[in-house]
Amino acid sequence: MQTLIDHKVDYDDYQLHVIQSKKFKTNTISLKFARPINREEVTGRALIPFILQKGSAKYPKERDLRLELDELYGAKFSINSAKKGENHIISFTLDLPNEKFIEGESDLFRKGLSFLYEIANNPKLDGNGFDSDIVTKEKETLENKIKSIIDEKMQYANMRLIDEMCADELFGIRSHGYLEDLEKIDAQGLYHTYKKMINEDRLDIYIVGDVDEEKVKSELESTFQINRQPNVTINRPEVIKPSEIKDLTEAQKIQQGKLHLGYRTGITYRDEQYPALQVFNGIFGGFPHSKLFLNVREKHSLAYYAASRFESHKGLLFVFSGIAPEKYEQAKEIIIEQHETIQNGEVSDEELEQTKRTVIHSLKETVDRSRGIIDWYYQQVIGDRELTNQEMVDEIQAVTKEQVIAVSKQVQLDTVYFLTAEDGGANHE
Amino acid sequence: MNELKIPRINESIYHETLNNGLDVFLYPKLEMEKTFAIFSTKYGSIDQKFTPLDEQDMVTVPDGIAHFLEHKMFEKEDGDVFQHFSERGASANAFTSFTQTAYLFSSTSDVKENVETLLDFVQDPYFTEESVEKEKGIIEQEIRMYDDQADWRLFFGTLGAMFENHPVRIDIAGTVESINEITHEDLYTCYETFYHPSNMQMFVIGNFELDEISELIRQNQENKSFEAQNEIERDFGVEPVEVYKQEEVINMPISTPKCMVGIKEKPEALEKDVMLENDLVRDIALDLYFSKSGRFYEQLYQEGLMIDALRLEFVLEESFGFTAVGASTMKPEEFGKRIKEMLLQIKDETISEEEFNRAKKKKYGELIREFNNLEGTANNFMQYNQMGIDFREIFETLESLTLERFKNNVSDWVSEEQIAVCMVLPEGE
């Protein structure tokens, strides 16, 4: 495997990461602003990506902005917000074709940087706030988006599980914000939230592609001149133990029930047990050879999907599956049983080896995508641990069955959430 | 093998048609970690009425059978094929589209063994009454999952409104009723007709040794015997140019309405020699008018007719074609009406050379970007090869596309009787 190298440069107010790779026909630039999540600011921060994409001082209308991207050979641009552990991250990502594939073009990368700088740093203003028409309109957009989450059953069930499971924790805050807080937002207050982000958040800038590091650095230094005073520390929460298992059922008019289970692992990215957690998740529900898929789907034909995934910064693990409403008890029992069989040591050598190989494969596959490379390294910023992809592979390789069993005993069920049909599935019997 | 050079990106694909008719494409990319391989047959959900191998009369098979067969290919007398891939850390999967069933894996080691397994499992069917019955519960859950998804219902609602007889109007997975009719004998009939090597293609892309893999595939195929097969007779019915229904309404329990406007293609737009140009023209037209840099997008946004972005799609195949513009919208009726007006207005709009060249630039950059993605690259080449078209010609077609040709092409594209509007509305409205 090729070892990737993250060439880091520490500036006073941000960290630059240049990752050289010949794999891609495009170059990707990403800005990531991070701060601990809090209920007061989250709705405003969730709204900022919508506002900034609607125009800037230089490109006053969304269409002007998008036409400039077309000029940059269809550069792909997005701004979004998300939660990582108990932090709220706003990411700007621009992906542009490498000039070497375009005849007569030598300045595309620099133009891309200027574009990003313009959008991030020179929003369209109206007095001492954002443009108020844009704010009004985009509040409506976000409102509609929040309201339509209920139509996406899998996403809705995930959200409700976390609401209930982490009700008293920062992790329980919804990264897309709250309807009742949206009403209170105005153009001036929102601009203040944005100013705090641009000046005070932790900022990491990633550049991935077939680029010349020195050239990139000097272009960045001359283009990006934000006078920042970052003053935040990434939140790395204390681990919580579940007290008793919470069981919740909600009914809607749906055909398929969504059974989602929330566990606490107590293991985060920088923990020694993290590689063993990855292997545990693989044996339990991460892949088509995992116990959940083989038993819930293949053996009992209860579901089309039944899988698990873990969260790396808060120490959580989720199981999700879509089942016939009347199969709730049976499916839940089988899922819990799969966890218990691992606790009881029922893991074959083949299962262990196969899972390690599959985990390693997923990791290698991740670094074949530029976004994958950025996520992989950003994980290290949030998780506070640095290592190369080769080191991670070696750690997974070294995981023993005993370590997996030890992890399985540490993983504890916290909340069972079931979204079921209003008729309880009576029609489908 | 023949070397096929890809203009602009300085890479090559190697191609060979084996004695049994199998088309093999090998695209080494040694800078990548992974290898992606896909083995595909020209057999999809639309192939429901055909003359079985060695028979005289046409038969009609139950809806959803191609997809059902895809599920059952993975099961063998000695267990599940997924296992063989995951023992080597590879991940396998499959999909069924309107015109294609494909089996695939991605791996970062043991490429030879995985390619061999892929060829062997697809060429060795094992269907029993018992295993067919067992699968019905799983596929039923897959169907019910889609039934709860408004976007999926909207898409098939639009197809059902556009097409009167063509089987593209039928859901790929079929219905719970239709899959219950499927027998293991039906699966063998379909398999024997459509899985002959002369109806199939294999594409391998990524980090592998060209000579080694080409030899392996050749040997593997020479060791199996296939009787020569004639062209398969398929019947898609007679489809009028005008849409089946101008309007379709689906009621389901959702909170945010959705609307999609579909344009059915005329049969002459689907001829082989104009296919690539028409693909580009549809794509560029959608960009010029409905993308975020498009002329009509801003009007729709200002009129409050959509929540966030539009969903833009177009599909051109040998026997059917359509373009669709959709959105989540609080005003579905008005949205449908406006989009329809806009579509009819396109032929009278004036586009400047500058605008047209910018749209071409954008398309060019997007084509370059698509080569970042191994799966997408393989799919592009295969999808066109299945229609007898060399995808590499897309570059030349784009470069030689003039504004004049674009205008002429667009003026023949849309007329009122080719347009259908589908809405998904909350129940009780």
Automatic annotation (TrEMBL), chain A:
UniProt keyword list: Coiled coil
Organism of derivation: Alkalibacillus silvisoli
Coiled-coil residue spans: 132-159
Entry-linked Pfam families: Peptidase_M16_C
InterPro entries with a match to the protein in the record: Metalloenz_LuxS/M16 (IPR011249), MPP/UQCRC_Complex (IPR050361), Peptidase_M16_C (IPR007863)
Domain of life: Bacteria
The protein, known as: Pitrilysin family protein
Domain Peptidase M16 C-terminal: residue ranges: 184-358
TrEMBL record, chain B:
Domain Peptidase M16 C-terminal: from-to ranges: 182-362
Domain annotation Peptidase M16 N-terminal: ranges: 63-175
Protein name per Swiss-Prot or TrEMBL: Pitrilysin family protein
Taxonomic lineage from the root: Bacteria, Bacillati, Bacillota, Bacilli, Bacillales
InterPro entries given in the database record: Metalloenz_LuxS/M16, MPP/UQCRC_Complex, Pept_M16_N, Peptidase_M16_C
Database matches in Pfam families: Peptidase_M16, Peptidase_M16_C
PANTHER family: METALLOPROTEASE, ZINC-DEPENDENT PROTEASE
